[in-house]
Write a structure and sequence with these properties.
The chain is an alpha/beta fold. 30% of the residues lie in helices and 25% in strands. The strands form 7 sheets. Strands 7-6-5-11-21 form a 5-stranded parallel β-sheet, with helices on one face. Helix 3 packs parallel to helix 10, helix 5 (134-150) packs antiparallel against helix 6 (167-191) and helix 5 (134-150) runs parallel beside helix 8 (267-279). The termini are far apart. Bound molecules: flavin-adenine dinucleotide.
Length: 554
């Protein structure tokens, strides 16, 4: 007989007693569900007893079909044993493999729960974010942005001549920040957790809960794999025969090239393309898909492409590279655009076509951990792999490659592995930022996704020219697009293109996560002249012509 599990759900959109009845009925209709309890519509929650393996998505879909929305917050064995302590009779209760952001979060959570933890690192402590990701890229972006602003006619109407950027100084400042932050946020942090033993070495799984680190065997109670990902290049003829930049080496280029081709127009490619263009390199961005920022809202992609072109970047979507060559110190990329053969040429080539999980040589499959087609570790919604002793979190799972998501995943995996907490990995409100200027910030569903999921969709699009803060800053580039569930008056997605979009999105994230209605957003005070006020104006734009509003979005 199948084991039974108890699932705790958050349910949104219930407004009366009969809603609770409808949700109960919907939950009971899911195959494998044995019982469902909705204590009352006011509580916005439900408990389900179901056969082990009933998918969280199936439960959420049934509630959605009934006109409400639900997310599974946790799952645990029904009437099962009290949380276990995860001790395996070994020196360590938990071994975390990979000391990046996911690994640190998992190890710290394990220590806070009172367990003995080993944190293993083969390379540099801190992993991608601090060494070759978020930190170096964002400080380069900021340095070049300041230089760019100084040369703008439109900024306060004053024209200053910035002169030539001192690139080697910019790179030296970046290195200084990386070193300081690695020390402060990773190396020094370990000292505060005596329960964590840091082991420098390359780990490999050797069985159900066996690990070998540089030939030394261990048998920890549980294992969390957080080995991250590395730059990956599309298979293109000739590419393997030439040296090229990836996101890591592009953050450390000692001299500015005169021209550069950036292959791939997702977040990393676009951010670095603009950095180099603003520093003085002639940049061509090539993207195989029909638009840049291909996974963002279409209106946002189109607007950003225009802004980048206005700045002098060449943006070429729909280009399929078929051959890469290097002649006389230059890169020649040949490919097809709209059936015609086209060639691009530049002094440097940056390949930003994605990242691949670090799973090779880890002994995973031999230990019963299954991998997906891109080498990513397959996990269930508790982040447990097919080997019950092994969990995985972060970029190595091949999804949601943002540092705050991997840290959340690391903590969740530790709680589930060590105290059987039954916490479910929730991706319903993840904010995504592309740090171009203007920035793209989004959360929740795009208009297309919302329609595909069968919602009754309403959309409000507000150009930034209606946001007083943007007018005052003399920079009205961008737009805000809100996607709403008309039936529930709730936000399903928010998509912003604006200079400070990353700061604005959090209001929308809270609204999506906690089911704040559009009416509540409209009735909430937002401080005048702030970019965040744009969210309120966009919410008002569902009902009113915002061009006719007086001060403070009345
Ligand atoms: C250019 C760039 C810019 C980015 N900008 C942002 C941003 O602005 N905001 C944001 O949220 N995210 C950003 N990201 C993404 C973010 O950096 C990653 O999602 C995050 O750092 C991944 O963390 P992780 O712990 O999963 O993996 P990592 O940080 O990569 O850690 C994995 C660690 O495991 C180690 N390891 C591998 N194999 C073994 C082994 N066998 N034994 C022991 N150790 C091993 C590795 O050496 C590494 O240190 C950016 C990424 C890049 C590349």
């Amino acid at each position: 007989m199948a084991e039974l599990e108890e699932l705790e759900l958050t349910v949104r959109g219930m407004t009366c007693d009969s809603c609770a009845v409808h949700v109960t009925k919907a939950l009971k209709s899911v195959e494998g569900v044995k019982d469902a309890d909705v204590p009352g519509w006011q509580w916005a929650r439900a408990t389900v007893v179901a056969e082990d393996g009933v998918k969280a998505e199936a439960v959420a879909a049934a509630v959605r079909e009934a006109g409400y929305s639900a997310t599974v917050k946790s799952r645990k064995p029904a009437g099962g044993p009290a949380p276990q302590d995860g001790r395996g009779g070994s020196q360590f209760d938990l071994m975390v493999i990979g000391a990046g952001s996911a690994g640190f979060a998992a190890a710290i959570k394990g220590a806070e729960l009172g367990f003995k933890v080993a944190l293993v690192e083969a390379g540099t402590i801190g992993g991608t974010c601090v060494n070759v990701g978020c930190v170096p890229s964002k400080t380069l972006i900021r340095s070049v942005e300041l230089y760019h602003l100084a040369g703008q006619h439109r900024f306060r109407g004053v024209h200053t001549s910035p002169g030539r950027i001192n690139w080697s100084e910019v790179i030296a400042h970046k290195d200084e920040l990386v070193n300081d932050m690695r020390q402060a946020k990773y190396a020094d942090v370990l000292a505060a957790y005596p329960e964590i033993t840091y082991i420098q070495g390359r780990a490999k799984l050797t069985g159900q809960n066996g690990v070998e680190i540089d030939s030394r065997p261990y048998a920890p109670g549980k294992i969390i794999v957080t080995t991250g990902a590395e730059p990956w290049a599309s298979p293109i003829a000739g590419l393997n025969e030439v040296p090229y930049l990836d996101s890591t080496s592009a953050l450390d280029l000692k001299e500015l090239p005169k021209s550069m081709i950036v292959l791939g127009a997702n977040a990393v490619g676009l951010e670095l393309a603009q950095v180099y263009a603003r520093a003085g390199t002639y940049v061509t961005v090539l993207e195989v898909l029909p638009r840049i920022a291909p996974f963002e809202d279409e209106d946002i992609s189109a607007a950003l492409a225009e802004y980048l072109e206005d700045e002098g970047l060449r943006v070429v979507p729909n280009f399929k590279t078929t051959k890469v060559e290097r002649r006389e110190g230059r890169y020649i990329l040949t490919g097809r655009k709209n059936e015609a053969e086209v060639t691009f040429e530049a002094e440097q080539l940056l390949v930003a076509t994605g990242r691949r999980p670090n799973t090779a040589g880890l002994g995973l499959e031999e230990a019963g951990v299954k991998l997906g087609q891109r080498g990513e570790i397959l996990v269930n919604d508790l982040l447990q792999t097919h080997n019950p002793y092994v969990y995985a979190a972060g970029d190595v799972t091949g999804r949601d490659m943002f540092v705050y998501v991997v840290a959340y995943a690391g903590m969740l995996a530790a709680e589930n592995a060590l105290i059987n907490a039954g916490r479910v990995y929730d991706t319903s409100y993840i904010p995504r930022i592309t740090f171009t200027d203007p920035q793209i910030a989004s959360a929740g569903l795009t208009e297309v996704q919302a329609r595909e999921q069968g919602y009754e969709v309403r959309v409000s699009t507000l150009p930034m020219v209606h946001v007083p803060r943007a007018l005052a800053a003399r920079d009205t580039r961008g737009l805000i697009k809100l996607v709403a569930n008309a039936a529930a008056d709730q936000l399903l997605g928010a998509h912003i293109l604006a200079p400070e979009a990353g700061e604005m999105i959090q209001t929308a994230v809270l609204a999506i996560r906690f089911g704040i209605t559009l009416s509540q957003l409209r009735e909430t005070m937002f401080p005048y002249l702030t970019y965040a006020e744009g969210l309120k104006l966009a919410a008002l734009a569902f009902e009113k012509d915002v061009a006719k509003l007086s001060c403070c979005a009345g």
